[in-house]
Amino acid sequence: MKKFFLLFALCAFAFAACEKTSVETPKGKLTLTSKSVMNFEAAGGAGEITYAFVEEETRVNQVTAIAVVDWITDVTVGDNKVTFNVAANNGDERSATIKVEYGSDSFQVMISQAGGAVSAEVNFTATHMGGTFYGKFIVDGGQTEGFNYHIIMSDHQPSLPNLHNGYTEYRFDIYAGETSEFNSEVRIPVGTYTLDHQRTNRVGTIDAHKDCSYHVSANNVVSNYKTCTLVVTEDSIIADLTFFNGESHHVEYHGEPVMCDYSETTYADVYPVSPFTSDHSFDVDGGYMYVKNHPSPVWFPSETMWLASFARSPM
Questions:
Q1: Taking the domains of the chain in order of start, what are their residue ranges?
Q2: Distance set, CA 63 to CA 56, 59, 76 (Å)
Q3: Residue 23: DSSP 8-state
């Protein structure tokens, strides 16, 4: 009888050993709840990846996210989401992945972006870039302020403000949120600037006035922009613009966006503006000083400029 029960027990054990082992889904497993492939136009933009947990209350690890390409930036982990920005693409179509990890669990999202191959009627590569930093600009009764930079991209070394000498120039009057010091390197702030026909002088705009932003051809024909986007990076300036006759131009300058360097005694690319940024008093000996409050409806509709001239009396 004992042998019978022993044999039964062994058979039962063997049957149990042949069954599939049931593995419980690990608690806290990370799952993707948005698309695994995200497509962006050449202009780029903001993106968002969402995720969830099988058992939310078991969260113990920190969620991380990473992209290993420089055109996907500002990758930030938030509450059950990852946000990021895709830079504008002026080249061929491209793709990369963002990897999201939670402990030993992870998933990847493919980011694909259309190419922005240049299709303008005129493609121009500037060999020189210069300009003037005008300093702080205040509107709205002092509530809003920006910093005004006048940029010249050309195939020659810019000289006098309005002397073109048969060379090609593209000029842009931009408003940025960052300043430069008059006694140091004048670097154009990185960012995207768009043409503003309303002339609000807001940060991120290009003043569309005919005397502020325009193109000068090799035969000294001046044309104004209908549309324009200017992108400043750490090592280039790219402009895409159209004129009122429908013609489109693509302009590139490759190099650091430094207009001029006031840290050493050098002749600026363009006549520098006065380095005075606050009130000053002068002791004029043997001469006279003439100061005039000069309204300027063309350049600054709501502002006036104080002009000062100095002269020494004849000996």
A1: 30-113, 122-261
A2: 13, 10, 10
A3: P
pLDDT confidence tier of residue 290, bands split at 50, 70 and 90 = very low
Task: Tell me the sheet residues that pair with 308.
Answer: 291
Instruction: At 132, list the tokens.
Output: 């003037």
Q: Which of 22 and 136 is assigned the larger pLDDT?
A: 136
d(CA 13, CA 16): 5
The arrangement of strands across the sheet holding 72-78 comes to 30-32, 45-53, 81-86, 72-78
13 class by beta-carbon count within 10 Å (0-12 exposed, 13-18 middle, 19+ buried): exposed
Contact between 135 and 178 under an 8 Å Cβ cutoff? The reply is no
Pairing of strands 205-207, 191-196: parallel
Helix (H, G, I), strand (E, B) or coil at 147: strand
Task: Provide the phi-psi class of 142: left if phi over 0, else alpha when psi is between -120 and 50, else beta.
Answer: left
Residues 206, 196 contacting (CB under 8 angstroms): yes
Contact 91, 116 (CB under 8 A): yes
63: closest CA among 81, 37, 46?
Answer: 81
Reported CATH class of domain 30-113: mainly beta
Question: Which pLDDT belongs to residue 125?
Answer: 94
Whether the Cβ atoms of residue 222 and residue 216 lie closer than 8 Å to each other? yes
Q: Dump pLDDT digits (tens) for 94-123.
A: 899 999 998 888 899 999 998 876 578 899
What's the pTM? 0.52
Which residue pairs, CB below 8 angstroms and at least 24 apart, start in 251-256?
A: 251/124, 251/125, 251/126, 251/153, 251/170, 252/123, 252/124, 252/125, 252/126, 253/125, 253/126, 253/129, 253/153, 254/125, 255/129, 256/187
Nearest 5°: the CA angle 33, 37, 40 is 120
Residue 278's pLDDT band, with cuts at 50, 70 and 90, is low
